[in-house]
Amino acid sequence: MRLRHLELTPNYALRTAIQEWATTHGVNMSAGGSKLNAPYRYEDEPRNILQGHEEIVWAVEVCGRRLFSASADKTIRVWDIESRRCEQVMEDHTRPVLSLSVANGKLFSGSYDYTIKVWDLSTLQKIQTLSGHTDAVRALAVAGGRLFSGSYDSTVRVWDENTLQCLDVLKGHNGPVRTLVHCRNQMFSGSYDRTVKVWDCNTLECKATLTGHGGAVRALVASSDKVFSGSDDTTIKVWDAKTLQCLKTLLGHDDNVRVLAVGDRHMYSGSWDRTIRVWDLNTLECVKVLEGHTEAVLALAVGNGVLVSGSYDTTVRFWDINNNYRCVRKCDGHDDAVRVLAAADGRVFSGSYDGTIGLW
């Protein structure tokens, strides 16, 4: 297990005792650059780093002027993007909140407490708790008026978006369901059982089980006609969304493929091997390998003319899509791994293991 080496709790009582001792004995605590005498002020924090969560940020979702962040501290925070202030803390989950999805005036949140909470976006109040899963709810996706929830209990549950009733429990996976993506009226579910299952969004029947990966499937993304699956086996498989046949296996990464993102012309893969690979959507060839991160790449987002990446090395990097993917900006500010990213309206939002939100 990778240690969170910067998870430090300030001991203010000890600091005060040291300051009193230093004053009594005539010792100048500012020598050597120490900041013990300087009172902590909220204003000293960089304006683009939003403080509030006490533990890992597992998910971020943008909706209009608001940013929603889900954390291991069991809460969801609602941020006003312009003022950068926390409007509300949504508390009802009893264990870490892992996943978020916004649709038609509602926010859905999935948690380690096995439930999905439904929140009204206008009042920010809880509407209902959806129960039934018997393990953590790790992935959420909305399609065709239905909410799909993927769980570590190896099932996908389908809920009516309006009545919030459970319509069906989709069974077949033999391991935790880690990721969901919608394409051509089909829901694709990726699992630690090394497979991807394809569900008809109308009939809810399993149309196919996509096999071939030699490790857990952790990431799925879709273009207009293709679905890409990233796996611990270091490969990415490309599936035709209509025929459900494997078009190609993309090779090149030296370690687990952790995250995928798709843009207008390219698909992007981030790996534990510290690199990002750029793949042409038409030829399915690797056209560029982006190097610079010094630890695993955990998050990717596509913004206006830029690819954004977040890493275990605590940084957020911006790559210029129109200038041969040159790294044009490296952002510091987080004290631990950058776990999730979201891009909207010329801004990028990053969630970190240190509990903070970055606004870039």
TrEMBL record:
UniProt WD repeat ranges: 50-89, 90-129, 130-169, 170-209, 210-249, 250-289, 290-323, 331-360
The keyword Lyase is assigned to this record: no
Keyword match Repeat: yes
Alphabetical keyword list: Repeat, WD repeat
Source organism superkingdom: Eukaryota
Signal peptide (UniProt feature, chain positions): none
One function term, GO molecular function aspect: ubiquitin-protein transferase activity
Domain U-box: 1-28
SMART domains according to UniProt: WD40
Pfam families documented for this protein: WD40
GO biological process, one term: protein ubiquitination
Protein name according to UniProt: U-box domain-containing protein
Species in which this protein is naturally found: Chlamydomonas schloesseri
